[in-house]
């Protein structure tokens, strides 16, 4: 019971930190304004770690490498701690274990990126119905447009309603529930076998 509570705490705190570091990375990558309260919230939560790391890892071609590196480090540390408290016998320094941990951390970043996209698309869809002039809409439009625009070129509105957000949400759910979940399990099984 104690192990489950510790796993829950590690996943909750680690997942939240990964999400805010990735949110900062994507907000800057898509050149969205940090003047919105959501942008200010992300900055306030991440400045303590990003600003010192940025002295060592400066932005590369406009991308906030410090935020992305911190998200990756947090994912790696979270999975190392989660594996350390499991009863599986394995050796962290084995080459196969290190590779598997790096792959799981990369998969975690991909998964959390999909969660962020899912939340942005869902938020945009809901706000377009109930509050289309909400100040959050331009920020969400900037984040979702690169993914919705190609779909809108192929799929016309049905009865005057844009169904591309729904299709994108279904695609994200499919990737998360089928491909990501199975791949994560397969990689973690290799970690346990490496020990």
From TrEMBL:
Pfam families noted in UniProt: CCB3_YggT (PF02325)
Highest taxon in the source lineage: Bacteria
UniProt keyword terms in alphabetical order: Membrane, Transmembrane, Transmembrane helix
Segments passing through the bilayer: 6-27, 88-107, 114-131, 163-183
Protein name: YggT family protein
Species of origin: Chitiniphilus purpureus
């Amino acid at each position: 019971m104690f192990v489950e509570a510790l796993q829950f705490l590690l996943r909750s705190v680690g997942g939240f930190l990964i999400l805010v570091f990735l949110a900062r990375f994507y907000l800057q990558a898509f050149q969205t304004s940090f003047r919105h309260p959501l942008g200010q919230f992300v900055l306030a939560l991440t400045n303590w770690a990003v600003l010192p790391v940025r002295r060592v890892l400066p932005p590369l071609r406009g991308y906030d490498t410090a935020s992305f590196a911190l998200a990756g480090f947090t994912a790696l540390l979270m999975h190392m701690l989660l594996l350390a408290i499991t009863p599986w016998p394995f050796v962290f320094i084995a080459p196969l274990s290190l590779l598997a941990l790096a792959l799981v951390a990369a998969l975690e970043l991909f998964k959390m990126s999909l969660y962020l996209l899912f939340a942005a698309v869902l938020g945009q869809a809901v706000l377009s119905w109930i509050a289309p002039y909400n100040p959050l809409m331009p920020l969400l439009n900037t984040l979702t447009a690169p993914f919705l625009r190609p779909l809108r070129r192929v799929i016309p509105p049905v009865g005057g309603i844009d169904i591309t957000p729904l299709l994108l949400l279904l695609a994200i759910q499919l990737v998360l529930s089928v491909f990501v979940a199975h791949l994560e399990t397969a990689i973690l099984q290799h970690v346990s076998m490496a020990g």
